[in-house]
Amino acid sequence: MYQEFEKIIQSEYQLTPQTHIVVGVSGGVDSMVLLHLLCQIPKNKRPVIYVAHVNHQLRAESEEEQLFVESYAQTYQIPCFVGIWDEGKTVDTNVEQQARTFRYAFFDKVMQETNSTYLLTAHHKDDAVETILMRWIQGSQLRKLVGIEKTRSLGANKVIRPLLSFSKKELYAYAKEENIPYHEDSSNFSDNYLRNRIRHHIRPMLEKENPNLGEGMLRLSQEISTQRQVIDELLQPLVELLVCYQNNTWQLDYLSLKRHNLAIQSEVIRYVLTDIQEKTSLVVGYEHMNQLQQLIRSDKPNQQVLLGNNWIVEKNYEILTIYQKKESLNEYDVFDLVKNQGVFLSNNQWLGFFELGKEDIPNELVNWNLKEMIYTHGKNHAIRVRKREDGDRFVYNYKGQTKKVSRYFIDEKIPTKLRDLSWLVFDEKGCLLWLLPFRESYLSIQHETDKIQYKLVYLYQGDE
Question: Key word Membrane present in the record (predicted)?
Fold first, then answer.
């Protein structure tokens, strides 16, 4: 087994004595075998090794496992870093995902501290098969059915899995042959986790029908991976033509995309969403694919869709813009709107500027609270919305007398919190039309002889 492992290390990953690596070691048989194999590499070929262990504090034996890993690393004179997940004592929902998030964040931190290029994990062939089955059961996208890949990115560095060619049975046999100590994780025997239920019940049942199930699934996984690489390579020139990424914002030329068949449209959308998921915190699912497909195929020119976690898709003119709304807006935020356009002022505020009778409210906002203002507009068909500044004034009566916005807030005893949520709406001449959401400027009040042309639609959640 060692000869095959060394060949993988040297040929597939080109690890040299100058390479710094972090090895994730839980104390289980998989990671202990991995660490042992690495330590068998001759010193003149062996990379610089650091051990990283996470004490999740989820089980009574967690402390004992930590001491075991630290002691083993000390025996081989390998620096050992320990991360302790304090939340592990109290967390009771989505435990696996939260633990994984903490674990990889800790690994990334250790890699930065040790100037390491690679993180090595002890995932093996059976893990890969179980992952494929798990994702198939969960209804994952096709590209996710590749299971566990040999290499993936982790920030600026990479995660590599040199044991994927070996089965769990082979690892146990090697540990016995080499007298490698390890701890058996008691949670591996619990059916509380989907992976364990697959391992204990589902996979054995399927293997009664096909004893070579694992090998077949891994071949299928490799085929999917190869086809995805081909599709992505062929798609790249079109993506570069249609998609622009800058400052955590994606823009898609959806009018040009609509000239292609539906299959290509779907692949470009999938490419964009995958790129967003890899660069941000957005978790992408089939519902996001469907939302974008419907938005592109719709004939309505100005629409918005909420993707969750403050992510917004805006459809304006020829461009589809995808971005994450900031949690809070500062006093320098400014929005310029042309007619028949809407914009999110914050997570809970939306303003639209429409020709009368052409109002187009996003479906997601129809149940929000509503305020409207109708007025005659100038020739430039544009308005500006911004936060208040010192000296802002508005016309408050028919005589044309003005009042400072700050004085109005004081006179009306408006709480500071509500003042901070307010917006000022100006016409193209810089005249204040609306102190949103409190009152209109007298300039915006329509006389009977005026011709009504435009409507401002303000939608919000909560009390204002």
Answer: no
β-strands 341-346, 432-436: how paired?
unpaired
Q: Which of 162, 154, 156, 167 is nearest to 14 (CA)?
A: 162
CA-to-CA separations, 126 to 38, 148, 215, in angstroms, rounded: 21, 10, 10
For residues 457 and 372, what is the distance between their CA atoms, to the nearest angstrom?
A: 5
Architecture of 2-209 per CATH? 3-Layer(aba) Sandwich (3.40)
Task: Quickly state the pLDDT bin for 118 (edges 50, 70, 90).
Answer: very high
Provide the pLDDT for residue 464.
56
* Sequence ranges of the binding site: 26-31
Distance, in Å, from the CA atom of 187 to the CA atom of 26, rounded to the nearest integer, reads 13
Residues placed in the known binding site for ATP: 26-31
pLDDT surpassing 90 at residue 67: yes
Q: Judge whether residue 285 has pLDDT over 50.
A: yes
For the stretch 121-139, pLDDT in tens is 999 999 999 999 998 998 8
Enter the CATH code of domain 234-324: 1.20.59.20
Between CA 179 and CA 288 the distance in angstroms is 51
> Model confidence at 324, in pLDDT bands (50, 70, 90)?
confident
Q: Write out the chain in H/E/C secondary structure.
A: CHHHHHHHHHHCCCCCCCCEEEEECCCCHHHHHHHHHHHHCCCCCCCEEEEEEEECCCCCCHHHHHHHHHHHHHHCCCCEEEEECHHHHCCCCCHHHHHHHHHHHHHHHHHHHHCCCEEECCCCHHHHHHHHHHHHHCCCCHHHHHCCCCEEEECCEEEECCCCCCCHHHHHHHHHHCCCCCCCCHHHHCCCCHHHHHHHHHHHHHHHHCCCHHHHHHHHHHHHHHHHHHHHHHHHHHHHHHEEEECCEEEEEHHHHCCCCHHHHHHHHHHHHHHHHHHCCCCCCHHHHHHHHHHHHCCCCCEEEEEECCEEEEEECCEEEEEECCCCCCCCCEEEEECCEEEEEECCEEEEEEECCCCCCCHHHCCCEEEEEEECCCCCCEEEEECCCCCCEEECCCCCCEEEHHHHHHHCCCCHHHHHHCEEEECCCCCEEEEECCEECHHHCCCCCCCCCEEEEEEECCCC
pLDDT of residue 210: 95
pTM of the model: 0.64
User: What does the pLDDT read at residue 452?
Assistant: 53
Distance CA 240, CA 255 (A): 15
Q: What residue segments make up the domains of the chain, in order of their start?
A: 2-209, 234-324, 334-460
